[in-house]
Amino acid sequence: MSEIDHIRNFAIIAHIDHGKSTIADRIIHKCGGLTDREMKEQVLDSMDIERERGITIKAQTVKLNYKSRDGKNYILNIIDTPGHVDFSYEVSRSLYACEGSILIVDSTQGVEAQTLANVYQALDINHEIIPVLNKIDLPASDNERTKKQIEDVIGIDTSNAVPCSGKTGEGIDEILEQIIKELPPPKGLKDELLKCLLVDSWYDSYLGVMILVRVIDGKIKKNMKIKMMSNNQEYIVEKVGVFTPKPKDIDQLNSGEIGFIITGIKNLSDTKVGDTICDASKPLKEALPGFKPSKPVVFCGLFPVDSSEYQKLKDGLAKLQLNDSSFSYEAESSSALGLGFRCGFLGLLHLEIITERLEREFDINLLTTTPGVVYKVHLNKGDTLELQNPSNLPDPTFIKFIEEPWIKATIITPDEYLGSIIKLCQDKRGVQTNLSYSGNRAVLNYEIPLNEVVFDFNDRLKSMTSGYASFDYEIIGHREGNLVKLGILVNSEPVDALAMMVHKDFAQSIGREVCEKLKDLIPRHNFMIPVQAAIGGKIIARETIKGFKKDVLTKIHGGGARDRKRKLLDKQKKGKTRAKQFGRVEIPQEAFIGVLKINKDK
User: Fold this and answer.
1) In Å, how far are 212, 225, 273 from 261, measured between CA atoms?
2) The dihedral formed by the CA atoms of 245, 248, 251 and 257, expressed in degrees to the nearest 10
3) Which of 116, 296, 348, 452 is surrounded by the most beta carbons within 10 Å?
4) What is the pTM of this model?
5) Could you read off the pLDDT of 421-456 as tens digits, one per residue?
6) Which domains does the chain have, with CATH numbers?
7) Burial of 529 by CB count in 10 Å (0-12 exposed, 13-18 middle, 19+ buried)?
């Protein structure tokens, strides 16, 4: 048996909270990766925010040595992947570096939407899959029902599914034996030319850029000269290592192995995820297929509450991008909010995490504008614009039509909530494509515009089903829609930060709601302030904030009082007109936040 036959590379995939990180902890402990003293909960979740929220954001790798029951030594390379829909690009990257997957299903909850999405990704690249039923120590656990669900909904044989408990450690030995028996070893030739896949890269403040690689053929050694095939740049390998989970330096990585290299690269943009690395002295003729780069789908503006923190925000974004190349940002300015940045994210959770990290790690008070998606604006001249910010929409007379992104949504729910979920999807302009059952749970497929989902869809789904429904989506392309730009004017001045793209049928109700909200949130001034919602030049909703009125008549009495009162009131009226003309209406931060929280389709 050759060396490579003793290697097993596998990913751990599951829905959120089904126990991926806990089972990874147990496997690390069992294989002696860390001592009892070094073990802690979620040992692979290194960020504070991951530990607090109990979610995995970055995929993590570990190399472990395992002695099987028949006395042979094996090398196990585990990749613990995120479960949330926003981080599915992390999952796809991780799966490419492995030959098999452990599919963890919570035996009390059964198959969920994200379970499906991740399994299908693994099956698409011909992964061998071992089903594992977790949480069997809980009284609500039902192994037979869960097995039947996996067979009905996913179509995987569960005759050798492993029941286990990440909490007590029961069944972990059995999982390890199944990995050795069921998962194939990597294919690769040690004596071939170096062919290596760049799986991930991140910035370390002491070592520069660290690159996670999977060696397909050949070997990568210290002091070797390597070449990145996407940009033909050459570098010298300064360090080679593996995570055990602690970083450990070694001399070389052989074919089939996963580890990290450090080459003194200072700029993260030089390391493209999915790139092929080869030997600079013996370059390859063709690169590996790699994988599609992640594209931001949700955009919003980030502005510092205090304009003096602009530079701090700029530095914070640059540092965060070093470790998360999937979000993008560019400078923008707004007449209402001053200088800030237009940022692109993979979804709302991604947006939430980036803003939370900015506030926490860099101590910046942030103001976030309405999240929106990327629209394709087709002009009469035949050009196509990609529109991220609604305030940049060209004049409607130049526009032929506008396309918006659509998603394919998978919702898994107990059937008693089915009616209210179907109503929610229809209110969001959804089109039902499929409905099937597994036991008492319904699997619903809908095609919905992404703009309708981005805002509050997940929250409403969770609240109307008491948290029992699960939701996953993938983008299926752009389609033409009857869309208009809803502008908000305060004291006849357009507030660009509150502009939004909406479907024409909902424009009036949303406009009215925004105006009512702003009327309550903008403080009264000495003059009357009109708050209006408009489509182009047409006002479709209006509210008025009354001005303060000083009583100028109290001291007037005696002869000719009537004329003197009239004179004073006219003077006051002129003053108010002048104040309205030149007075600036300061819109407080609460007003922006209040508008963001408006429930779009009451």
Assistant:
1) 7, 12, 14
2) 10
3) 452
4) 0.70
5) 899 998 888 899 988 887 778 888 999 998 888 767
6) 3-182 (3.40.50.300), 195-279 (2.40.30.10), 298-369 (3.30.70.870), 376-481 (3.30.70.240), 485-596 (3.30.70.2570)
7) buried
